[in-house]
Amino acid sequence: MYNPSSNKAGEFISHEEIMETLAYAEANKNNEELIDKIIGKAKLKKGLNHREASVLLACEIPEKTAEIYELARQIKEDFYGNRIVMFAPLYLSNYCVNGCVYCPYHLKNKHIARKKLTQEEIRREVIALQDMGHKRLALETGEDPVNNPIEYVLESIKTIYGIKHKNGEIRRVNVNIAATTVENYRKLKDAGIGTYILFQETYHKESYEKLHPTGPKHDYCYHTEAMDRAMEGGIDDVGIGVLFGLELYRYEFAGLLMHAEHLEAVHGVGPHTISVPRIKKADDIDPSQFDNGIDDDIFEKIVACIRVAVPYTGMIISTRESKSCRERVLKLGVSQISGGSKTSVGGYAEEEPEEENSSQFDVSDNRTLDQVVHWLMDQGFIPSFCTACYREGRTGDRFMSLCKSGQIQNCCHPNALMTLKEYLEDYAAPDTREIGGKLIMKEIRNIPREKVREIVLKNLEEIEQGKRDFRF
Ligand code: SF4
Ligand code: SF4
């Protein structure tokens, strides 16, 4: 029985409810009156439930779809402005005891190079990332209690936060590790992590069990209830996502929104971010073995519908996606992207030799961080290296209430300009620096409060003189 407030995975992600939702959406995909009503509700910018959003995703009326896209653009503009937050993944270890059939790190893959970074190697990787200009990382490890115990992850986080190289520092470490216990989540919280990220992969239980035939990840309920344990362990900000291509996208879309509704119902705060990865080619993995791949048009529609359904939730895409695809979805709702990423264990400090390939997937966007920053600015976006909220204690419901009142905008915009200025001073190529400088001067005018504008101008000057880490 469907119950968003239940603590049982089978009840808050109810298969029957999803199937009914899909039937309802299919029956109404040309129902102009209903679609208008749902778009009208979405215009209030307070979100939609999974049924309403599923109707929009199924909508087959071209003019209505265009309206949904326009609304997504508007909501993106209202909540996130033209800022795009930058991050990079850091793979610590690809040892894994699970059997996920779509991931090259699965236990039975005997020809992929297995690696685990030592603390010294982590230091080198982090210095290389700092020298690119990164301030925000997403840590990734396979699940392996012997090779990657929680103590290893905690020690690595401590190492990362402790590295101060030139003007560089990692100011926010997000963590993407396997579902674990409340006690371990508490330890991660105490280590000062930003967001805890865990992808559901698929919400379809039967498919999930087939796609994860062996290892602890096989347990669908333990995996699906992980965010509840994370929140019980004190982690306020959690990031959810599915791997599009494993199951029917409409099923995943409804499941994703039901998961968000569940977190809101039980913990009073929905997910901090939603990621939208698509299955990619990798060692031992051929995406064509999965029947549910989605093309760029559908991907774009999913992004737009997520944007109107959960306006307050950040949306992330990675370098799995090509430059052209990233261009399309940035305008419709994506608020965070990675840049200059390596998906191998190590590889930032030193290029990995071909025969030692340890990548989790092929990267489609191979540009450097500076090229990505340049490209974003060419399109009128402000690349932001801001990490202020969690460092100012603005997490969980505190963050969400600021977001819902629109007040967060007073922080995001000035912080974006000041952190971009740091980047330009310390890491940018001359032409990037030049267009960035102009962009900052233009965007300062868009800070509504005069007092804030004055502080930002003063801080920008101080950044030029060598001071760092100003924030609102
Ligand atoms: Fe291991 Fe994660 Fe890959 Fe599964 S998806 S094999 S858990 S690293
Ligand atoms: Fe993100 Fe907060 Fe910075 Fe805005 S102020 S960009 S919400 S960390």
TrEMBL record:
Q: Which cofactor does it need?
A: [4Fe-4S] cluster
Q: Which UniProt keywords apply?
A: 4Fe-4S, Iron, Iron-sulfur, Metal-binding, S-adenosyl-L-methionine
Q: Which GO terms describe its molecular function?
A: 4 iron, 4 sulfur cluster binding; catalytic activity; metal ion binding
Region: Disordered, residue numbers: 338-363
Q: Which InterPro entries match?
A: Aldolase_TIM (IPR013785), BATS_dom (IPR010722), FeFe-hyd_mat_HydG (IPR024007), rSAM (IPR007197), rSAM_sf (IPR058240), ThiH/NoCL/HydG-like (IPR034428)
Entry-linked SMART domains: BATS
Iron in keyword set: yes
Instruction: Indicate the segments forming the Biotin and thiamin synthesis-associated domain, all copies.
Output: 275-383
Return any one Pfam family short name. Radical_SAM
Q: Does GTP-binding appear among the keywords?
A: no
Top-level taxon of the source organism: Bacteria
**What biological-process GO terms show up in the record?**
sulfur compound biosynthetic process; water-soluble vitamin biosynthetic process
- PANTHER family, from UniProt? 2-IMINOACETATE SYNTHASE, THIAZOLE BIOSYNTHESIS PROTEIN
Task: Indicate what this protein is called per its UniProt record.
Answer: Biotin and thiamin synthesis-associated domain-containing protein
Q: Which organism is it from?
A: Clostridium symbiosum (strain WAL-14163)
